[in-house]
Sequence to fold (181 residues):
Amino acid sequence: MKLEKINVWLGLLGQLAVFGGLVALVIEIRSNTQSIRAQELASISDRLSARQLALMGPDIRGVYTKALFSPNDLTLEEMLGVSIFLNYRLGTAFDAFTSAQNGTLTQSDWETSLRDTLYYLGTEFGRNWWELEKSEFADYPGGEEFVESIDKTLNDGSGLPDDKFYAELCEKLGMSNCPPK
Fold:
């Protein structure tokens, strides 16, 4: 009888130990997932920074400003520079999209990146560029859904693209040479 009670208690202790081990495993997996997510966000940010730095030159601010407010005045060389910038920016957004699809980023992370694209594509130059380039992005695995998300964001009109943002900022600061809104 005593041996049976001891066996019951040992079995119960064994089950509690297994349960405790499973709880510890779940906690560790959650911690690792959060770490992977943080690494993925940092990696995407690093890639964007590297891409932007590769395009920075002494005239890039002037070229981008011209693309915002006077896109018809761009030279072919300037248009190419802005196009490369937009291509890299959309590449970074696509990275965030695919990372959200495979679970290393959250849907909220992707939606933030998606909203940010409006600043680049919501301008006259950006919209025209996107219309010509989006078929290239659609050809990638998962690209059609990515393109649909970008198009929906552009068409719902939320947020301010760069041209409107800087025009309003210029006006709020009381600057005299503000571009039209």
Remarks:
- The chain has a mean pLDDT of 79.
- The chain is about 80% helix and 0% strand.
- The longest helix spans residues 2-55.
- The radius of gyration is 25 Å.
